[in-house]
Amino acid sequence: MGNTILTGRSNAIAPIISAEDARTHITEEEYRRIRQAFQRFKNGCIDYDEFCYHVLGGAQIPEDKRRLLFSFFSHGAETISFDNLLSSLVGLCRVEEVQSRFIEEYHEFASWGLSPPKLTIPLNDSYISFYEVMSYVTHLSVKEVIELEKVFATISDRAVCKLNVEKWKQALGGCFPDTYAERLFAVFDENRDCQIDFRELVCTLSALCRGPHPGRISQLARIWDVDCDKLLSDEELSNMYADLGVPVEHQTVTKSANGKAALVDFGIWAQENERYIAKYYSMALQIGHICLGLRPESKKMELQVVNEFESRASELPLSEWNIVASGWHSEYRTLLEAERTPNPIDNSGIKGTREDSWTSRLLQVACISAESARLKPDLLPMDYIRVPVPLWRAWLRWHGCALTVDSQFTRKYLDGEFFEDNKPSLELYPLEILFLGHDRKKSHDGTETTPRSLTPWACAQVSRSMTVDELLALCKTELRLGDGDARLWQVVKENEEGNVLLDDGNQNLHQLYTALGKTKKVNKMKLLLEVRERGTGVWPEELRASLSGKQITAASTLSSSNAQLSGRPGAVGLVNYGNFCYRNAGIQCLARVSPLTQYLLEDEHLDELKKANTKRRDVETTIEYAKLLREMWAAKKKNIAPNDFNDAIRMNSDMFECSEQHDCQEFVAFLLDQLHTSMYEANKTLHPPPPAIDPKKEEENHEIEETDEEKAERSWTEYEKQNESLVTQLFTGQLRSRLVCRTCQSSSSVFEPFTSLSLPIGFEDVDLYQVIVVHRDGRIPRRYGFRLSRDSKIGHLREVVAASSGISMSHITIQCMSSKGTLMSRSPNHRSSNLRDELPLSSFPSGARLYALELPESTGEDEWRVAMHRKLQYNHEPHILGSTAGFIVSRFGLPLIVGLDEHVTGKKLYEDVMYQMHRFMEHSVNSFSSRAHDPCEDDASGFPFTLCLVDQNYEWCGQCPALRFCRGCPIRPDDNKVFIPANSPIAVDWFPIALYLRYNHSEEQACEDDPSVAETWSRHFAPSSLEHCIEKFSCPETLDAAIQCDRCEKKTTRDKVMTIWKLPKYLIIHLKRFEFLREQGRMGKCKRTVNFPLKHFDPAPFVDKPDGNTYECIALANHYGQLSCGHFIAYAKSNEDKWLLLNDCSVREVSEEEVDKQGAYLLFYERKDVK
């Protein structure tokens, strides 16, 4: 055995046996598993953290015990070698002498004496893999099931690991009739949930493509079995005869099942009349083998399936084809006919070279498209064949490829507009695009003083039919640009002004390439991929234009529809060389106010400002704004860089001196204030105001009681005298602020001017909650929707759920499950399984699911438990070091409530769980499966699961000490009374075979939506309206402090009511999308759409003194993204009454329907006076 090394508590005990001796105590299978597990550690050893997670399985044992065990395994070293791991594991788990010595030295582990933790359990005894189960119940081998799973992963929806209708159609590649494809999907969709899971796929493929031939043919009858009863009625038989074109004399299917035809009846008939069913059966084989991934069982079968598929698909109008060398294809058929294994796909005969390509070693840039290979130039039709994409993928799976790279040639079939001869054809030679990027190196001080150079970034081979938006999306995805601002430019050396901005996302690459005037054989183009700087918000190309003084050319302005914009006053873009999109959008909107713009364009008014005082900040800002307007209205350039104006803003404003993102509304307010101040001061200098009224006389006038109309008129007159300017005349309106006594309803009014009306749009103090109510009778759960105050608590939620579901509030418990399947833990000092009523709903984690579970009748506070479904990687026995991460616990499914009355037995608990699960338990064997009954599937001989007592996380035992490594003490399903300790949940541990074959996950996830779900969702996220926003603006607000009321002769509570008294000529409406969220401690953005009219807006219902005029929208500023990293653009009307989209330097004409209202932030309305 080896000698014992005596040590004290300060040192580690050395194993009594060596690694060689340890091997004699375990089997070769166990040794292989331990060796395989150890090889997964990268450094060839195990450190302390890895030991706790992988060897101890993450068990929550005390830190000092973990350290002690690690010291024992490592012999006091910092890491554990394989020999030390093996000898320590085997010694502790298999050798009594080592166990005794260890327990004698460390009394804390005395509980190991009678039953120490297991080592690793032989695979066949502890766990049956899913592949083995599926092989056991079908005609497929384990290897075939594994291969099918790999294919299934590529064609299914990865989010749910299922094949929906859309993914099914993609897998079939459009190679089969739509009606047939839909019906065959229904055949695979055994449980009729409109999705095919992997179990359904494997079982149906086995039935259709393997096993006895009569059985395969019989399954085709299910194509016409609409009611899924596995019988064909007269109507279903009639449809079948019509689809197959069977003459009356051969319509002889026997009806052996009470006047209906069984599947076997159809099978017998089909064998006698095979010519009618041959096409449908052939297509089923083609789909199963070529599209869904089942390898043909013989070379003869492969040749038959491929020939029939090619023959039928060759003339299909598919949009994509794969190009394959004719030489390999001929050889492939020859070898299959000779019953020999085909060689890997070899396209070397049609493959071109990389010389002069963007992927050459000279450039060394990555290709971001799926393919980068070139075909040989001037290929002849005899050199290649075209095959559908599903067949190409099948060949790759079956035979591989001789070329490790550049072996795939997927080509699109395009309309004639993309070719010189105007004939539809395959695009054999796609466009090769080189993406350039800006050099990211900055100067030492971080400033930008010179334009950045362009360097190769990436390349792609894409179709001419791809649009600019699609190409940009490809770049963002493959280059991991995220949601950051990026755009494309066409690199054109011949353009004096430089590159062309591709601002029309619907333009395709063929149009761009044709504009270059190159021959089709070149097939190469350079594009610049420009990324906006995150920190400064700078567009490098706009910075280049600003520094060089050159124009920026947008592709949209070169089109015939937008070419006429050139030369139009005001239809000029503004270069954004900093984080100035908020300024550009504000300027473009404000410039549409014709009286103000016209005023600043006239020399005499500008001269008046200069005469007044040119040294004041407001005057300098006004002069630079006027210069900018003159340059925009001169329309000599397509876009201009407002350098002088931005410098003036930086010098004259503390708020906007930096290049950070700011609020467009704040900038417009600042600019209007600057314009107003300069005009007012100039007017006051040139035209001194009349002498001020004697304050004493004015005070006497105020003592006379006035009506609100008189107050408003006096307040407005005084304001005009003190703020006389064009800005006041155009933009200033009047609000009435009333304080209303809540006792006697008396009120007092104050009138205030405004230039921008800020309206609330949607930050309601409510949250949306959806609760799934689970009844104990196993019926389909029902989901309810509620809009509750953000300070609501569990008790209120239980109350509204009880009112909606009809379940007594005393028989409802609320349970919160995280996105990872973990139930929200209760307070450690609270012994009940129920969440406390005083717990706030805001404490629930984001993305959590809420369940309202019905409790058993006549149960008290502690007479029920929450049970969760659990899957252990290895059942029955705990172990140390699972070679396949065996200690991982998976929780799934709906939580259940188990009643615990004083006489409850183990058998009653099991029966209660089975009763609640009967809806999603498979009780019958599939007719097309070859499997036999397994004992775990028969209720008469047992249950398909074990109930275990666990801890609050449903991972470890709730009773045993942590050092026992117990996953849960099982409850016996007998007639003996059971004792369930307080605060001890129950886990439903499933046997592997039963879980795979009997547990219907689709049925378990089924849920009916109550009408309240749609109603509350609509109310919570439905678009608002401008009228609703104005109504919210005028809602009474109760003041906290009491105010003295003259009528009541005491302090009373007052309501403050803001209403619109008078509107200006030009109304600026600010939709308050940003508010501070106190609960989250941050600024939040409300993305709710606000519907508003572009024409004929009548504000009369919301104005105290309406004048009968309507308003028309002349401009709006939109915001996208968040406050700190968003982007502003503008829509504005031109002088010709046409809408323009002004996105920094880009300007293009759009229709009224194209004006995006969803992101509206600032609205500029012009009053249309009634004549």
UniProtKB/TrEMBL annotation:
Cross-referenced SUPFAM superfamilies: Cysteine proteinases, DUSP-like, EF-hand
Gene3D superfamilies: Cysteine proteinases (3.90.70.10), DUSP-like (3.30.2230.10), EF-hand (1.10.238.10)
EC number assigned by the record: 3.4.19.12
Group of enzyme by EC: hydrolase
Annotated Acidic residues bias: 701-710
Domain USP: 572-1168
Biological-process GO terms, alphabetical: protein deubiquitination
The protein, known as: ubiquitinyl hydrolase 1
Catalytic activity: Thiol-dependent hydrolysis of ester, thioester, amide, peptide and isopeptide bonds formed by the C-terminal Gly of ubiquitin (a 76-residue protein attached to proteins as an intracellular targeting signal)
